[in-house]
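Office hours follow-up: a student asked to see two folded examples consecutively, so here they are.
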Amino acid sequence: MSETLFFNVNVIDGTGAPGFAGQVLVKGNRIAEVARDGAAIEAPNAETVDGAGATLMPGMTDAHGHLSFLNAATLGEISALTRERHVMETAKNAKLLLDHGFTSMFSGSSARDHTDIVIRDVINAGDIPGPRLKASTRQMTVTGGFGDIGKTDAFSLTLNGPEAFRDACREAAKAGVDTFKIVPSAPGSVGADVLAEDTAMSDAEVAAVCEVARQRNRMVAAHARSADAVKMCVRNGVQVIYHATLADEEATDMLEARKDSVFVAPAMGLPYGRLKDGEKYGVTTNDYMRARAEKEIETVSAKMAELKDRGVRVLPGGDYGFKWNPHGRNARDLFMFVDLFGFSPLETIRAATQHGGELMGMAGELGIVTRGALADMLLVDGDPVANIKILQDQNRFLAIMKDGEFHKVPSRDRAQAQVAAE
């Protein structure tokens, strides 16, 4: 069994507790021992990694990712690709996410049927590098709902009535997905209220999806912006609420009441990216789009701060995979948690690590640095508590370990340079 000993590191364990100087021993794919306060771990046969004061922290989880969205400008653009080329491009995104310190991802939907399943399975087999992946369906919507873009095999599956949703979920479970993605809400008519939202799916349709999920031990994630959509999802047992933009007091109370079984991911990457980077990527933003993005950022920021204070698990995951919000920018969400939502850096890191492990169904063994946990860890040049933005720079990752194996092997140059300087 292989052994790796990290020493001379500042450990952030992912629980929200302050960091500490310590050592961490990995045996096989698990953390075997954690020492602090000057204690030393005896491991004469271990490969040693001198962190030279760098930060050792858990690998991060993206709670709302789309590996098979290829930085497209329009929702239907992907359908022009062959399925074979699409899978190859998705594999590149899987490696890119791992390169940026995300060792796990909960898919917010697959662009095509089975694409997430294939990528998950080849990652698990060790055939390609990538994060631990919860594979999703295409997003399931209704006629006239968000994502109803006509007859195409990409992006959305349009269904109507509880039996249609029930049948689609059964087929998806048979194919091997982990998550059913539904779209209960849809954009409202353009008017004075730039955040107007309709509730497009019926209670019976959402209930049918959740019924199959319970029967087949799957999870349900929902694009739910309107207050009624959030309430309908919580009432029926949806575990992952995306956006929650217009959650009213009743919806917020319901989320708090189910805080031990529900997760919220605001997915702010799209409006933030449109405002900050739209022009950079050649994306036109008219006055209405700009006003909607600005209002959404303001509204969601206040709501996520409130949910955090109520103890609801709010997780980073920003809908990355569109032209103005490309893959590789995922850690920008952590900056938004601090800058916009009022999270402390340690609270933010906990959201991306320990709470991410809970979302992945691996509470207590993923997203934390403790004895017995899976060895998914990052060695970071610098202190993300002092500056959360350094997690956006992949060059800051001196080492990336997933399941006890190095995806990025640490260099000895940094430790040797520090010794020489002293």
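And the second, which I mentioned at the end of office hours:
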Amino acid sequence: MIVNFGCGANPAPSAPDYVNIDGSLTVLLARLPLPASAFGSRADFIRVLRTHRIRYGTARHLKLPEGALDCFYASHVLEHLSRSDCEGLL
């Protein structure tokens, strides 16, 4: 399993071994049955969320099976976490 944590609008390829995770509330809002255009400036992000397998998850509440990871990728995301959240995540 390869996790792309904090993927935003740049998810990893949709493949069985990739899991894209983002903590933006927009990930949850994308599930609403509204057209992407209803989200204004976030419409493009909504389209990405709906066409890729992106799960909602945060550093505090990320639960993955022990020993299941082959790779954990986090580009430009750790600096947005508190020190304790970053330490707990890593």
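Two things to take away from it. The chain has three helices and four strands. The longest helix spans residues 43-51.
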